[in-house]
Write a structure and sequence with these properties.
Chain lengths: 226, 301
């Protein structure tokens, strides 16, 4: 589904990731574990086309390394960046709908995708008309997930979704992810996290990212070296 | 100052504010989205004025109805936006978005200088008068003074329609939302499939077209001669900076403030008419460095 073949990624002239060579199978739930600064965000941004990549990134059998960033979401990729990044000028629902409008989805498809979002995240329906600039940090994460769900029919990438969430909200967010997992078995989920404990029992596969290199690992990866 | 003079100053100010707003709103739109202060905006204004005068003169001399002077303005604005603005963004500006601001200023200033010479080459240095549109609409008696319908009614209507039209376009249409989203967060916009390059091109064409429209609307009210572009860019920059860069509604109010300040200065203390807009700007920026409506951190258009 998503594979890296001898890929290096850099931002500006600074190399961040090197020798990436791994495959994420379809419909898996992948935990990408690594310390702050290890390159988790860079890996996701590379899939979205925001870094300089040499080598090959393949999605659904297609080499996307040279594809412009704006074309990639249309392949079925939804991405929720680390710090929400909502458009504050719009309401919550406008934020969620915008990707579908940009992709020119017909109204029936748009409505069914919106229903899917509201089914998984019913709390978003209650705040649909609120300005996105006025929702709390945790609610904003939910909105960002909802927005990613609109185009993310094949792959959804969530960058540190639990970061800064109050325990109750974190649990609610994890429940929503499980709902998503249960209702849509085809979608592939990639979730980055610095604390592997949060994804225990949820991820079907774990990759560990350390000093710019990725290896398949187990969840017993220790957060801090002892 | 008697009532007649007061009214004249008031009407002058409103008419002038309407023109300055139309030009300034294009400047602030381009800055809000692209983060580039486009000095060449003044040339686009001047070219719009020259082009409208030429087209109108052609129509009148060809024996066509003079009312075609109005479509000429729209045609000029579209031409300036699409034929001049489009290639400018695509060929030149696109290369400098990631460069330091000083370089961006130098490049747009260079474009300004080149376009100024192009105007001299094409239209010469003699002032051009073409007031067909102004005369066509006649005058109206408002209280105790006669004033041209074109300046007192048409220009403010265009400015107000533009203000609300732009608001509607940005908040209610998908194309507008895409522009707002790109303004706020370019990467997040691309991450939902927005083609930022296309948005920049569209924005620049619209902004340049507004400069051209300002020039087109100004052409019947003034003599068109070298230097009008420089005057206008400096004044609309004053409006944009006073309002806060990227603020559309703010630009409307500030244009009115500066337009009225300038016209009252003409009647009360003419020596200061050039100075007044900058005194207003400096006074505002001393108290609020981010502008009247700007906020220090958030980007908005």
């Amino acid at each position: 589904m998503l594979s890296f073949h001898n890929a290096d990624a850099s931002i500006g002239n600074i190399p961040i990731l090197r020798g990436l060579d791994f495959t994420i199978p379809a419909s898996g739930t992948v935990a990408l574990i690594g310390r702050n600064g290890a390159g988790k965000t860079t890996l996701l941004r590379s899939v979205m086309g925001f870094t300089n990549v040499t080598g090959e990134i393949r999605f659904d059998g297609q080499d996307i390394s040279d594809m412009t960033p704006a074309k990639r979401p249309g392949l079925g990729i939804g991405y929720a960046p680390e710090d929400r990044r909502l458009f504050s000028a719009f309401t919550v629902e406008e934020n969620i709908l915008l990707p579908a409008q940009v992709a020119r989805l017909d109204s029936a498809t748009t409505q069914s995708r919106l229903d899917r979002v509201y089914h998984i995240l019913p709390e978003l329906r209650d705040m649909a008309d609120r300005p996105a600039g006025n929702v709390s940090g945790g609610q904003g994460k939910m909105v960002a997930l909802g927005r990613a769900l609109m185009l993310g029919t094949k792959l959804i990438m969530l960058d540190e979704p639990f970061q800064g969430l109050a325990p109750a909200l974190a649990k609610r967010y994890a429940d929503a992810l499980r709902d998503l997992r249960d209702t849509d078995r085809n979608v592939t989920l990639i979730i980055t996290e610095s604390n592997p404990e949060l994804l225990r029992g949820f991820a079907s596969q774990t990759f560990v990212i350390e000093r710019g290199a990725v290896a398949e690992g187990a969840l017993d990866y220790k957060k801090e070296p002892t | 100052m008697n009532l007649t003079l007061f009214l004249l100053a008031l009407f002058d100010g409103i008419a002038y504010a309407a023109l300055v707003f139309i030009v300034a709103v294009g400047l602030t739109l381009i800055f809000g989205v692209m983060r580039i202060l486009n000095v060449a905006h003044g040339s686009l204004y001047a070219m719009g004025a020259y082009l409208t005068a030429s087209l109108t003169t052609f129509i009148v001399s060809a024996g066509l109805p003079p009312v075609f002077a109005f479509p000429c303005m729209l045609v000029s604005a579209v031409l300036i936006g699409a034929v001049l603005g489009g290639p400018l963004e695509w060929l030149l500006l696109r290369r400098i978005y990631h460069k330091p601001e000083v370089l961006q200023l130098l490049v747009t200033f260079a474009i300004f200088m080149i376009l100024e010479d192009v105007q001299r080459l094409v239209w010469g240095t003699q002032p051009i008068f073409q007031s067909t549109a102004l005369q066509l609409l006649g005058t109206v008696r408002a209280f105790s003074v006669n004033y041209t319908v074109y300046q007192l009614i048409l220009l403010p209507i265009v400015a107000v329609v533009l203000l609300f039209g732009l608001r509607f376009f940005l908040r209610r249409t998908v194309a507008g939302k895409v522009i707002l989203a790109t303004t706020e967060d370019r990467e997040a916009a691309q991450a939902i499939g927005i083609d930022a390059d296309k948005v920049f091109l569209l924005t620049f064409i619209v902004g340049a077209g507004l400069a051209g429209l300002g020039g087109a609307l100004a052409s019947p009210t003034t003599s068109i001669l070298p230097g009008i572009g420089a005057d206008m860019i400096v004044l609309s920059f004053a409006v944009v900076a006073t309002a806060g860069l990227g603020q559309i509604e703010g630009a409307a109010l500030t244009a009115l403030m500066i337009g009225l300040g300038r016209s009252f200065a003409v009647y009360v203390w003419p020596e200061t008419q050039v100075l007044v807009p900058y005194v207003i700007m400096v006074a505002v920026l001393l108290v609020r460095p981010e502008g009247l409506f700007g906020s220090p951190s958030a980007r908005k258009i």
